[in-house]
From TrEMBL:
Protein name stated in the entry: Secreted protein
Disordered, as annotated region: 242-274
Segments of skewed composition (Low complexity): 260-274
Pfam families: CbiX
């Protein structure tokens, strides 16, 4: 059988390298590995690898070094733009021998909204919510205004999907916090406020935000099937912009692929990046 490394290095199918942040919570690594197994099940012929920005092995530079000078598409397992997507990951790609493209983050996208809605339903969200219902969309947070803009767009799309107010909130580096968002919604008369966990895996921030939920809290997105499809969508869109390109030039310029419009969101939702 041809190994993933051989396939990537001999000009065959570019490898998919999923780039996770990394976490000290052991549940995060097991969740990410299970998600990659879902991706492999959807596309068995595709070489799929894992690399981390920090905290967990394998680290991204080690994963890329193992690929030699093969072609790869790096898909961040991150839900918005920010420093890791715009600087850290491209710089790691530039320093490697691999020929890489860096795809856009997973959000905003209608598949992300699918996963968020499904997790809320699993937690007990009603089929027909009333005026007393509202949602806090909890995410990690970033000082980057583009990251906050992406989260706001995801919140708007989830609000359109559910038919209730959805307020974005953050665990760090941005405002409002989850308790602040809950208080604001309570002041507006909402008495059934759910927390939608906009995290890819369990960890400190996800646990911290869930503990502040006044009613139900959904589980992190984890291995939901829509997440596996979204990773493959970002991979395909990155390759759809042309053939493999020089890793150093694209990474130093901070260029990302796969974030152009083109998705087909539900008719009632705001248009989301493809």
């Amino acid at each position: 059988m041809t190994s993933s490394r051989t396939t990537a290095a001999t000009g065959g199918t570019p490898a998919l390298v999923v780039v996770a942040h990394g976490s000290r919570d052991p549940r995060a690594l097991s969740t990410v590995r299970a998600l990659l197994d879902r991706v492999r099940a959807l596309r068995p012929a595709l070489p799929v690898h894992l690399g981390h920005v920090e905290l967990n092995e394998p680290l991204l530079p080690d994963t890329l070094t193992a690929l030699g000078d093969g072609a790869a598409v790096l898909v961040p397992l991150l839900l918005s733009r920010g420093h890791h997507v715009k600087r850290d990951i491209p710089e790691m790609a530039a320093a490697s021998p691999a020929r890489t493209r860096v795809a856009g983050p997973l959000g905003p996208h209608s598949l992300l909204v699918d996963a968020l809605q499904a997790r809320l339903t699993e937690a007990g969200w009603p089929t027909h919510p009333g005026p007393e219902h509202a949602v806090v969309l909890a995410s990690a947070g970033s000082r980057d205004p583009e990251s906050r803009a992406d989260t706001a767009r995801t919140a708007a799309a989830l609000a359109a999907r559910l038919g209730v107010p959805v307020v974005p909130a953050y665990a760090s580096a941005a405002a409002p916090t989850v308790p602040e968002a809950v208080r604001a919604l309570t002041d507006r008369g909402h008495r059934r406020i759910a927390l939608a966990s906009c995290f890819t895996a369990p960890g400190r921030f996800a646990t911290q935000c869930a503990a502040a939920a006044p009613w139900i809290a959904s589980e992190p997105l984890g291995t939901h099937p829509a997440m596996a499809r979204l990773l493959l969508h970002r991979y395909d869109r990155a390759l759809g912009r042309g053939g493999a390109s020089n890793a150093g030039r694209e990474a130093r310029d901070g260029t990302t692929c796969g974030s152009a419009a083109g998705a087909r969101p539900a008719a009632t939702e705001p248009a989301l990046a493809g």
